[in-house]
Amino acid sequence: MAKVSVLNVAVLENPSPFHSPFRFEISFECSEALADDLEWKIIYVGSAESEEFDQILDSVLVGPVPAGRHMFVFQLQRNILASNPRVTRFHINWDNNTDKLEAIETQDPSLGCSLPLNCTPIKGLGCIPGLLPENSMDCI
């Protein structure tokens, strides 16, 4: 028989705003007093297929724990997005034609024009001639 049984895990404030912390109310029972600390971890499971993408978001030690029922609230800040950023955009070069790839990378669909490599559009403003290098006539 187990010395510790988890009775309930409740997600508090669900749903909650994106920037608010995660809060979990954890209830557990100890069948006998524990002299050592219990370690609790909140793990973000990145993939059901493998533990390779799992992230330990936070851990806490609770103890010593007397026999009986206990409850605590585990709160942690959301840091899933910041801790392991991934590639969100990449090109697949099907025909190995680098000229087409460079042309695609220098196009801004909102402007409807092809930009030279040294010309960077400002979102929401389009091409502003006063802000571009002298050789950037392709942007006008």
UniProtKB/TrEMBL annotation:
One of its GO terms (cellular component) is nucleus. Pfam families: ASF1_hist_chap. GO terms for molecular function: histone binding. The keyword DNA-binding does not apply. It is found in: Nucleus. GO terms for biological process: DNA replication-dependent chromatin assembly. Keywords: Chaperone, Chromatin regulator, Nucleus, Transcription, Transcription regulation. Its main location: nucleus. InterPro entries: ASF1-like, ASF1-like_sf. Belongs to the ASF1 family. This is Anti-silencing function 1B histone chaperone.
